[in-house]
């Protein structure tokens, strides 16, 4: 099988900068451990100064209360689960509400969790100066206002009417939707209104934007130094719903950014690498791109000549992929997938009940999970070093369509008799090729599924089936497997030998005699029965 050049593209790195795993060592000898949840309310003020403060619980600051860190270190212990929220309804460890204020001067905040958020709601305010929040993300919602000077921060999310001003600082990424209202791999909540971010004389690695109800396309690369920049400049179409971000004398150092499309259309082609795309009820047209992740739900995707680390399609999406390389390719729901000249390290069909069409699709490993009721056309071909892992990890069945082509030496062969036998050599299907030398049949592969009768379970996905083709006295056989069999299954037969010379002359003489006799009989009938 020829390998398209596009398969050789390397996968992009993960779309976020991984945090270096290092054992935390307290910075100050003077320490205090706050066990359990803590609430600051009314006009209360908590000042943490010249010490290490270990927070082993949740912290809520509301009303007109204040939290002040000065020459101190705040360590947030991992909570293990966000399922139980008594004092904080949002997915944050430290929350500020009403007119609460947070001040940090020459401080550092560290957490052993991956995404420990500090959330600002209501009319709360935050002033950060000469501090490091390398492992902590901040969320600004409602009418909150955050000012960051000479500091470093992992991630900033803004929504609704939140405002954020960054001066002389380093930010990993800025996003314009509420990640706090998301679940893993779910779509962002549309709660932006007039949120805004300004960066002055700072550095930024990545940026996330929102596109809704419009057609947009990326017009130029992202990286570089910008004297004045707005994300609207990156789109050829109008109607882009993005937060009002403005960069003054700021350097975009990262090679990635992310876009969320809702009921809109986005075109990406030959642009700088993108961290990821999430599309809901929209359209994505992508060519010659390198992508961290692509997630589509009830959307139309057309992807060509691209490299994607994680590709996930759900709902009633329609996906067309050509000449691309994927690390993980996950298909769920009623997706219609049409994949050609592409490659996947791992193909996952999870709860898939749609239709997949494959052509020259190479995979290293395949996993079938959940209650699958899928119809599959074409072939998924395994690489030479493919693992022999078990296909099905859950109950379900896949209807695989196999095409057959019968060929002679210089022509297709019609009426070639075909018979399919199961592993016990029982005939389960028979047919013959049409005038184009073509035929097709289905096999329902299943595991632990009551397919034929109630309470009778069948495991046949590891079976080898035998397809027999007969043309005249010549019989040929082929082995049929689940996904390892390429399609169409081609049978080639030698052409029928020509009759001997004496037989050809005899046949010619017989045909000539028959023709002459027919003419004489016709003349006699005409002579005796012609009208008088």
Task: Explain how this protein is built.
With about 525 residues, the chain is mainly beta. The strands form four sheets. It has a 33-stranded mixed beta sheet that branches. A four-stranded parallel beta sheet has the order 1-4-7-10, with no helix packed on it. A four-stranded antiparallel beta sheet has the order 37-36-41-42, with no helix packed on it. A hairpin with a 2-residue loop joins strand 41 (about 465-470) and strand 42 (about 475-480). The longest helix is centred in the C-terminal third of the chain and has 29 residues, at about 500-530. It is elongated. It starts with about 30 loop residues before the first strand and ends with a helix.
Ranges with pLDDT <50 over ≥5 residues?
Answer: 179-189
Largest sheet: 33 strands, mixed
Rg calc: 34 Å
Structural class: mainly beta
What share of residues is helical?
Answer: under 10%
Mean pLDDT: 79
What are the key terms here?
532 residues, single chain, mainly beta, 43 strands, 33-stranded mixed sheet
């Amino acid at each position: 099988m020829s390998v398209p050049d596009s398969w050789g593209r390397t996968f992009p790195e993960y779309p976020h900068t991984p945090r270096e795993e290092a054992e935390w060592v307290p910075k100050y000898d003077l320490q205090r451990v706050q066990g359990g949840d803590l609430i600051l309310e009314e006009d209360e003020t908590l000042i943490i100064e010249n010490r290490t403060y270990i927070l082993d619980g949740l912290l809520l600051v509301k009303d007109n209360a204040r939290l002040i860190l000065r020459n101190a270190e705040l360590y947030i212990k991992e909570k293990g689960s966000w399922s139980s929220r008594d004092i904080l309804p949002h997915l944050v460890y430290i929350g500020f509400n009403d007119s609460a204020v947070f001040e940090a001067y020459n401080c550092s905040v560290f957490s052993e969790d991956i995404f420990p958020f500090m959330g600002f709601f209501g009319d709360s305010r935050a002033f950060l100066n000469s501090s490091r929040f390398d492992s902590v993300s901040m969320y600004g919602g409602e009418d909150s206002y955050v000012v960051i000077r000479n500091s470093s921060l992992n991630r900033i999310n803004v929504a609704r009417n939140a405002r954020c001003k960054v001066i002389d600082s380093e930010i990993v990424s800025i996003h314009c939707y509420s990640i706090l209202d998301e679940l893993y791999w779910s779509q962002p909540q549309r709660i932006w209104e007039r949120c805004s971010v300004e960066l002055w004389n700072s550095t930024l690695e990545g940026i996330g934007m929102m596109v809704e109800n419009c057609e947009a396309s990326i017009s130029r690369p992202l990286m570089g130094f910008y004297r004045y920049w707005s994300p609207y400049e990156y789109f050829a179409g109008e109607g882009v719903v993005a937060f009002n971000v403005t960069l003054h004398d700021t350097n975009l150092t990262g090679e990635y950014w992310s876009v969320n499309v809702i009921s809109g259309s986005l075109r990406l082609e030959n642009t700088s690498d993108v961290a990821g795309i999430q599309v809901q009820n929209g359209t994505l047209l992508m060519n010659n791109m390198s992508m961290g992740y692509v997630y589509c739900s009830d959307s139309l995707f057309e992807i060509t000549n691209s490299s994607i680390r994680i590709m996930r399609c759900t709902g009633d999406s329609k996906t067309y992929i050509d000449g691309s390389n994927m690390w993980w390719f996950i298909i769920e729901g009623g997706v219609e997938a049409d994949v050609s000249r592409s490659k996947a390290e791992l193909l996952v069909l999870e709860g898939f009940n749609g239709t997949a069409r494959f052509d020259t699709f190479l995979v290293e490993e395949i996993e079938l999970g959940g209650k699958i009721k899928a119809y599959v056309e074409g072939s998924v071909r395994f690489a030479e070093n493919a693992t022999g892992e078990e296909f099905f990890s859950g109950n379900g069945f896949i209807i695989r369509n196999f095409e057959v082509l019968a060929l002679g030496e210089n022509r297709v062969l019609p009426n070639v008799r075909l018979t399919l036998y199961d592993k016990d050599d029982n005939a389960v299907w028979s047919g013959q090729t049409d005038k184009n030398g073509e035929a097709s049949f289905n096999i329902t592969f299943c595991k632990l599924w009551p397919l034929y009768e109630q309470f009778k379970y069948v495991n046949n996905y590891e079976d080898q089936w035998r397809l027999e083709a007969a043309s005249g006295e010549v019989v040929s056989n082929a082995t049929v497997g689940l996904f390892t069999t390429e399609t169409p299954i081609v049978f080639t037969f030698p052409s029928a030998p020509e009759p001997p010379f004496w037989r050809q002359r005899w046949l010619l003489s017989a045909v000539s005699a028959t023709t002459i006799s027919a003419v004489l009989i016709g003349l006699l009938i005409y002579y005796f029965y012609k009208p008088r």
